[in-house]
Amino acid sequence: MSATKLVLHHRYEQGIALDRSGFANHGQVIGAESSWAGPNAGTLRFDAGPDRVVVAPAPTLDRLGEFHAKVRFFAEPDAPGGDRRMNLIEAELCFALFIESGWRIGATTRFVDQSPGPVTATGWDGIFTGPATVTPNSWHTVDFLFDGLSHARVFLDGALVGERWDQVGPIQGLGANGVYIGHWPGDDRYSLRGNLAEVAVWREDPGRDPGRNLDDCCMDRGWVDARVAEARRAGWDAPRATASLRDLAQALRRAAGQVRGGDPARAARTGDATRRAMAAMRLGHGGAFADAVGDLRNEIDASLSPAVRQMLTDEIMSALLAGPLGLWLGPGVEPDDATAFLEGALGAACLDGMAPPLREGRRPPPEDRSPDVPPGDGDTDVGLPPWAAGQPRPAPEPATDHDERDGGNRPRRQPGEDLR
Q1: Per-residue pLDDT averaged across 23-47, rounded?
Q2: CB neighbour burial string for 213-222, b if at least 16 within 10 angstroms, e if fewer
Q3: pLDDT at residue 389 above 60?
Q4: Per-residue pLDDT tens over the stretch 257-300
Q5: Residue with more model confidence, 171 or 405
Q6: Cα(111)–Cα(94) distance, integer angstroms
Q7: Which of 46-55, 235-244, 291-300, 337-346 has the lowest mean pLDDT?
Q8: CA 46 → CA 11, 143, 144, 194, 241, distances in Å?
Q9: Which residues make Cβ contacts (< 8 Å) with residue 264, sequence separation at least 6?
Q10: How far, in Å, CA of 7 to CA of 185, rounded?
Q11: Residue 325 contacts by C-beta under 8 Å, 6 or more apart in sequence?
Q12: Which domains does the chain have, with CATH numbers?
């Protein structure tokens, strides 16, 4: 899955925060004013203090799984040579993207407890780039991408400046104050001094991305269409199905957190396997997808006790049975067989046995495709990671002090083109 649904898009040429995404996530401009002349004309000016743009909570901004935040900004020091933290965008209790002291970029998410039972927020985790990443008094575009599990990246002006494979997920839901732009949701201490031209947020699209990726990889689309028709006759519509998919995704993310178990090496391995699985889907490589799922199953075998495994499996099965898939799973699944059923389905890849037959290699490999065959994904991150081709994977850097974490600087593909 990838963050392809644009849910917030502000451009500040007229001094207003009109949302162009179509989801009416408009902002209230407080204190900030339009710059009408000079090199920053057509942007919104923030003079620190109470200046801010506030977006009210909305379902499209809540319960983020995977997301991508983009901000085009111009930051100034408060005094010659001085610097401090300045917020660019913060979704309260969810994620934050900001300039840190030393002209670094900070990109953090608030994770939730992975233990079985009630979900409890436990803290913030994220990327902090090296010093002097940002040039003051200059325009920059920053992108923050997180897959909802463990892989986070920060790009500045199209260049990768930070990456982690062990950032803790899933993400907590949006707080009551909503989204603050150029300001902290608390007081004025982290307010921006400078200008903003554009802000955008994308999230996962469970109604579009999974079907597209699986169809590219290994599924019989006719079988899927028939099941969708049955679900519609049973009273399932798109909003209800989307909500059930989000519940299932949350259960799967909690299970992934248990597999990681706080072990950075295991987090790196599961992150690698997850990324290989998603890349294989996008490229249509059924065999590579099955290999990645097998690696994930090995990590499950090595990290979870039978009791925890059963508890997590029951949670996942409950989410499955409560959704439209329950129309076909329910009659054939006994509670005592839930673990064996789920492991067998996942181990065979693409839910073999309850889903359509695999079509390995359905799409020709990239080098054999004609120019009119799309790559399988509209986002920028469709390639396999470097180590999937036999190159060694660098060991993750240990997290030390909160302000000394660095996500690495391995070259990767750039994020999408600027929206302008």
Answers
A1: 94
A2: bbbbbbbeee
A3: no
A4: 677 666 777 777 777 777 676 655 555 555 666 677 777 777 77
A5: 171
A6: 8
A7: 337-346
A8: 15, 20, 22, 5, 41
A9: 166, 396, 398, 399
A10: 20
A11: none
A12: 3-204 (2.60.120.200), 209-368 (no CATH)
Tokens of 284: 């249509």
According to DSSP, the β-strands at 3-11 and 121-128 are unpaired
Comparing CA positions, the residue from 139, 77, 127, 138 lying closest to residue 102 is 77
CA distances from 70 to 9, 10, 90, 98 (A): 9, 10, 12, 11
* pLDDT tens-digit series, residues 188-224: 999 999 999 999 999 987 655 544 444 444 445 566 6
- Return the structure tokens found at 220: 């019989």
pLDDT of 212 reads 47
Token pair listed for 259: 């597999």
- Measured in degrees and rounded to the nearest 5, phi and psi for residue 244 equal -70, -35
C-alpha separations of 253 from 22, 63, 231, 314 in Å:
28, 12, 25, 14
pLDDT at 266: 77
